[in-house]
Amino acid sequence: MASILAVDDSASMRQMVSFTLKGAGYEVIEAADGVEALNIARDKPVNLVITDVNMPNMDGISLIRELRNLPSYKFTPLLMLTTESSAEKKQQGKAAGATGWIVKPFNPDQLLGTVKKVLG
Amino acid sequence: MSIDMAQFHQVFFEESFEGLDIMESGLLDMDPGTVDSEQINAIFRAAHSIKGGAGTFGFADISGFTHTMETLLDEMRDGRREITTDAVDVLLKSVDVLRDMLTAARDGGDVDQANIDAQSAELKRVLDSRPGQETPVAATDGEAENAAALPTAPVVGWHVVFRPHAHLMRTGNDPLRLLKEFRELGDTSVTCDIGGMPAFHEYEPEDACLSWDIHLREAVDKYQVQEIFDWVEDDCDLAIMEIYDESAPAVTPAMAVTEAPPEGRVKPDLKLADPPPERRGGGDRRKPSKPAASASAGSIRVDVPKIDSLINMVGELVITQSMLSMLGEDFDMQDVPKLLEGLAQLERHTRELQESVMQVRMMPISFTFSRFPRLVRDLSNKLNKKIELKMIGESTEVDKTVIEKIGDPLVHLVRNSLDHGIELPEVRVAAGKPETGTVVLNAYHKGGNIVIEIKDDGKGLDGDFLFDKAVSKGLLSPDEVLTDKQKYELIFMAGFSTAEQISDVSGRGVGMDVVRKNINELGGSIEIESELGVGTDIIIRLPLTLAILDGQVVRVGDETYIVPLVSIIESIQVRPEMINLVGGKGEAFKLRDEYLPIVRMHEVFDVKADHVEELTEGLLVIVEAEGRKCGLFVDDLLGQHQVVIKSLEENYGNVEGVSGATILGDGSVALILDITGVIRLSGSRQDDFRLPRSA
């Protein structure tokens, strides 16, 4: 089954994302910030990364930039969770190499729909 | 798939309250004018997480309110806005409002809507305070565009030309996936255009070179088609064109459509996929069902080292257990020393395990202390006093229940210190003191207790003034003789408020008696030391844990009772010459120039004792509670044990004089005495028994 790395500094969001995806049968690895996520991702390639944008230590956009530069993440879908309704954050994310975004607030069905879409 | 969001609420509330604390302490530390970017970032992130979580978990009003705060913080962290004292003050107040909203959402209470609205207006005022800046966009904007795009002509399908840019796949997107999404919308035919393919030797395998013509024969909304390309709209050339029903009266001439669909059906009931996220909100708002967790229940976060030490202890326990069972398999009298050694080890490990488990419930007192910088700042402004708060021993660990229950009493005491203790700057200078008053909060461990001190260098308590006050209120008869300490303790009497003028800071007349009651309920005590003109020191002693108590087992007839060890001063055997009868009403005995009443336990609990009459035959356990001492007359002392407290209220009902029960080593049940209650019980028997005091 596809493995997903869920990155968020908020434990409740991480739990919700992880619970939803595990319920749908995905393998989910959690990380609380970009640095932790990058270490995990380097260690073991995952099929999809879902990351929050605002996080301590390393934010989501830097994480995406770092990941995209790794050979094994060249084509991996990298999604950002964003509440930013402004196009600016999305553009920053895209410029860093993000595949797309999920706009917060979202419900589990929307999350699953998007994940199914990118993982085929 | 339906997931009950309520299961995440508890974690959400916990981290939101933590976030509020981060915001509050961050805002308090913020120096207007200078920006510490990491600090303001941390505050922003906290607001951001609360907003995101609130939106996701169905608290739209909280999310909306936080959004405004977030906008303000965002501008501050980008340097677009100066950090002013005004803005910080408004943000601090907003943190309070947000805390109320979260509390109401968690406990199902009502929110003060007027207050929220007023605070929102305040935030907006600050946001708008600088001219020439765009006003913040409301969270729900962006709907209008979609709503206006609804087709009015009989559109029967869409013709899409999709030409990815070369780098499209390197963003993790995949043209095939996008094409598949069309199929979910309806009947789709796709033509691939390979015209963009370069010659083989120029071909870059990671580039996207193909492009596609897509015909969707389904009358979906345009935004549904746009949504498919939402993530790649800047990474491709895209044209989305309507296909009109040619059999219906044409509204606009069809565009250059090569392949008009023959079937001219218009589906009125649009098959809506997931609505776009911006459209949610209104319908999703729901009252949180019954609170999943109240303030006192809930989960606890435990450091991993604590859990590791627990697991370690359990490991040791298992080893000891297996050693003992091996010993038991083939037991010989020679092995007795080994057995005893094993039992001693078992006892040691059990105790260590118990301590480790207790550690799990321990939290640093800083959880309680952290609110005080704010309180002192706000109050000193309000009172026009200059006050410095010093906090010592914030990392001292206390039981979680104590943390939860000690907060309000401490707030009350600190308020009192600020309001009544510390003088106005002029007064202080006139008295030869530094202009700025100091309040010290100090927490430390002392002999199995937690001690919390609240010390100020204010005007101190005036014992005679308190005494006169109590007399004038009819709480005391004027001929009473009290020591200074007893006079100070008058402030704990119900109905006693020293504020000459009732301010909104303190002095509502309820208070100190409740403070003492709360602390007593936690099994603790409160004491005052004061010197007129120099300052006041309030000392609170609390047990380290509420689940286990060091107790003295006493016997009265056939019954055993537990007296909390903290209440016991000493145990003595009385000699006949020590006993006095006071006014024919009660018995007292003289102990080192002090006369103490005797409480006959067998009378209080109505049990048959061995030595009903001869006080000299039994033992007197001298106990102290709420500043009163007395001697409990019991038949025998049986030993000291650590006992696990079982609640009587939960399992039976409230019994005066008894605070709980426990199960002794031999399996029998013993009641744990509530000394305050016992004294009260005996007092009611002995009428208005007043003890004479020696000067």
Spatial sequence of strands, sheet with the most strands of chain B: 14-18-19-17-16-15
Q: Reading side by side through the largest sheet of chain A, how are the strands ordered?
A: 2-1-3-4-5
Structural class of chain B: alpha+beta
The portion of residues assigned to helices of chain B is 25-40%
Mean pLDDT of chain A: 88
Overall 3D form of chain A: globular
Largest sheet of chain A: 5 strands, parallel
Task: Tell me the number of strands of chain B.
Answer: 22
**What is the string of SSEs of chain A from the N terminus onward?**
EHEHEHEHEH
Please report the number of helical segments of chain B: 20
Helix share, percent of chain A: 40-55%
Instruction: Quote the beta fraction of chain A.
Output: 15-25%
Low-confidence stretches of chain A: none
- Report the sheet with the most strands of chain B, covering strand number, pairing sense and barrel closure: 6 strands, mixed
C-alpha termini separation of chain A: 12 Å
DSSP strand content of chain B: 15-25%
- Cα radius of gyration of chain A in angstroms: 13 Å
Radius of gyration of chain B, taken over Cα atoms and rounded to an integer in Å:
37 Å
Give the oligomeric state of the chains in this entry, treating copies of one chain as homo and distinct chains as hetero.
Answer: heterodimer
- Biggest chain pair contact, residues each? A-B, 46 and 50 residues
Secondary-structure-derived class of chain A: alpha/beta
